[in-house]
Each structure stands twice: as C-alpha cells, then as structure tokens.
Fold:
Amino acid sequence: MPETVLITGATSGIGLETARRLATREAQVLWDPLTAGPGSRVVNVSSSLHRSGHLHWGDLDFAARYSRVAAYAQSKLALTLFTKGLAEYGQGGPVAVAVHPGIVTTPLMAIYGRVGGPVEEGAAVVAHLAAPGTGLDNGAYYQGLTPARPAPIAAERKAVGRLWTLSARLTGLA
Structure:
C-alpha cells in the first residue's frame, strides 16, 4: 500500500526554494517510491487564483517586479501545469491532480478579500483525493471534489513541456 507524504513549499515563483531543496538526490528519493508500484498519487494544492496567473518565463522569481498576489497566482498556475506535466511526462509514475480545496482561513485570506472556511474542510478535500479508493482523472484540475477546467494555458502542450523541462533542470533531474 502506498504511503501518504505531504510536502509543502514556497508560494512565490514556481516554489523555487522548494525546487532547490529537492535538487538531485532528494527529488530522486521522492520519485523512486512514487514509481515503485501502482496506486501512487500526487495531490498538488493549487488555487482557483491560478486562472489569473501568468508565467513570466524571464522572471519566474519576480525579482524585477514583485507583487504578492501575482506571485501567488503564478506559483499556483505553475503548479497546475506541473501537475499536467507529471501526468504527461512522468513515465508511468503516479496519478497526479491539482486541486483548489476551497477558500479556507489562512494568512492568505487578504488575497481573496473574504472569510474562508475552516482549514479542516480544505484538508478533508485533499485527504479524500489522496485516498487510494478515490477515482481520479490523471492530470486533472479539481475544484473541491469535482473535476473543473483549469486556466487555458494548462491545455497548451508547449507551455506544459517548457515548465516540465525547467523543473527537471532546477531539480537536477534533467
């Protein structure tokens, strides 16, 4: 039976600090168990705000012009594309989905400008999607427990491939 592992990371750029820390050996340590047998899955916590994001390929770290909301939206957009890339290029690896678990009360609430639900509700959505018995559409984006349409760029094979290649390079897996 697959183990459940939760990894959290930065919410700016493409989670560059997370990518740096997972570089080479650590990324491989995570990949090996995920590809060891059937039933593995990755549930990436995205956000509906990914739809307002733009990938600034020349400035993924927002070094030139930082905006908290834009960086957050871009990081969630990149995560949604990465999820699609994992499904497409993951060489028979885990089933991968991205999910907006709902608006929950976190320090990021200022971005939404309204009150969210309890964190436990969002966590329950993620846990349900991570459960082995839950049927998932590989590479899909979920709004809660329902498959939903992601940002149009997530359907652009060229953009997904570009992010996949960049991620592999940043983690030393390329």
Observations:
- Residues 16-170 form a domain with the Rossmann fold fold (CATH 3.40.50.720).
- The CA atoms of residues 48 and 65 lie 23 Å apart.
- The two ends are 29 Å apart (CA to CA).
